[in-house]
Design a protein that fits this description.
Blueprint (H helix, E strand, L loop, with lengths): L6 H7 L11 H16 L13 H14 L15
Length: 82
């Protein structure tokens, strides 16, 4: 298998973010207000991602659909010429 296709390498090649500072404008403010309200209510909050590059989002989307046999694996990754 092409080592370039492994999740860990994709993660380093297309880094995302878990920081609300990477959100934009009013959406960032709304998210931060919401997080504050949840924490004040005693809810523990763990942010997995605030941003994923399109390449990683696509990979996750297609991997999910392939796992559920909703796509033909021979045609799915033509976009990346894999």
């Amino acid at each position: 298998m092409n080592d370039e296709l492994r999740g860990e390498k994709w993660g380093r090649k297309f880094p995302g973010s878990t920081n609300t500072r990477d959100l934009s404008g009013n959406f960032r403010l709304a998210v931060e207000d919401f997080l504050y309200a949840m924490k004040e209510a005693g809810i523990r909050v763990a942010i997995n991602a605030t941003y994923r590059p399109p390449q990683r989002s696509d990979l996750m989307h297609y991997a999910w659909r392939l796992a559920r046999k909703q796509l033909d694996p021979h045609n799915t990754f033509q976009k990346w010429r894999v």
